[in-house]
Amino acid sequence: MRVDLRAITGGTVGTAFTSGNGNFQFSNIPGGSYEIVVEQPGYQAAHQQVYVQGPVFGIMIELRGLSKGSNVAAGNPLVSKRELSIPHKAQDAMKKGVEQLYGKSDYQGSIKQFERAIHEYPDYYEAYTQMGVAYMNLNDLANSERALRKALDLSDQHYEIALFWLASLFSNGQKFAEAEPLARKAVELNANSWEANSELARALVGLGRAAEAEANALAASKLRPENANLHLLLANIHLELHNKAALLDDLNAYLKLAPTGPFAAQARQQRDEVQQELQGTQASPSTPTSQNP
């Protein structure tokens, strides 16, 4: 199913297509106000406004059939009965929870809203996922893991967002062997997810497999070029691979995006050191071979 993202001022800025379970994703969207539009034969057109300020998860779009008694348009298996059966109260609570989590950093308040959503719809694995993120921000790792695992159980291990968040939780705790298969599964489900690719790269670096991690980190950076931290991830990989030219590019890219970021001073110092080393290598003449007269 096609999903369009339109600027409030007019014009389509992005188009996505839903996966088999009805999920969709837009990448590289600047901050601002937009309208999500879904137009599907057999259904009323759906419009929903959204404000983008960093990652936005958990947006629910309800499609209403044009004729009663028809939940899914004929010949279109991409619209699941599950999506259409989620109660309005559950969707409203989910929306409020996401706004509190990402818009206001009100983690406790968002958890209450996600609990309301789950009360109205017990199989709401998206709500369990966002609850896990909220608990992670509160540093309540036990409840975060519990919520994310519940989301995976309810989604039959097929919700890539829960997979990469649980992988992130494990990598943050240096449990890279546990993080790697989760992130890999997320990439298999959605190769265009920059989060899944970056988490797989993080786990592989932690396991000492920098050469393998490079491809996923590059994929993540290509999908989300404005994310400064992805260039730091690449810098760590190229440092492990002793690729100083690529390391210099990574550090310059990070500093361009985040000149006053939390790691700017360290990156600038390392950048200068690498630059001097490369210049010294280029300037050093080859040692002549001694010859007998």
Describe the structure.
The longest helix has 20 residues, at 264-283. Mean pLDDT is 84; it is low at 67-79. Helix 4 (125-137) runs antiparallel to helix 5 (141-154), helix 4 (125-137) packs parallel to helix 6 (160-172) and helix 9 runs antiparallel to helix 10. The N and C termini lie far apart (81 Å). The radius of gyration is 23 Å and the shape is globular. The protein is α+β, with helices and mostly antiparallel strands and 293 residues long. The chain has helices at residues 81-85, 88-103, 107-120, 125-137, 141-154, 160-172, 176-189, 194-206, 210-223, 228-240, 244-257, 264-283; strands spanning 2-7, 12-17, 32-38, 46-52. A hairpin with a 4-residue loop joins strand 1 (2-7) and strand 2. A four-stranded antiparallel sheet has the order 2-1-3-4, with no helix packed on it. The chain contains twelve helices and four strands; from the N terminus they run ββββαααααααααααα.
Determine the N-to-C terminus distance: 81 Å
* Share in β-strands: 5-15%
Number of DSSP strand runs: 4
Question: How many helices in DSSP terms?
Answer: 12
SSE string = EEEEHHHHHHHHHHHH
**Rounded Rg:** 23 Å
Instruction: Note poorly predicted spans.
Output: 67-79
Task: Specify the helix fraction band.
Answer: 55-70%
Strand order of the largest sheet: 2-1-3-4
Q: Whole-number average pLDDT?
A: 84
| Assembly context of the chains | single chain
| Content-based structural category | alpha+beta
| Shape category | globular
- How does the major sheet shape up? 4 strands, antiparallel
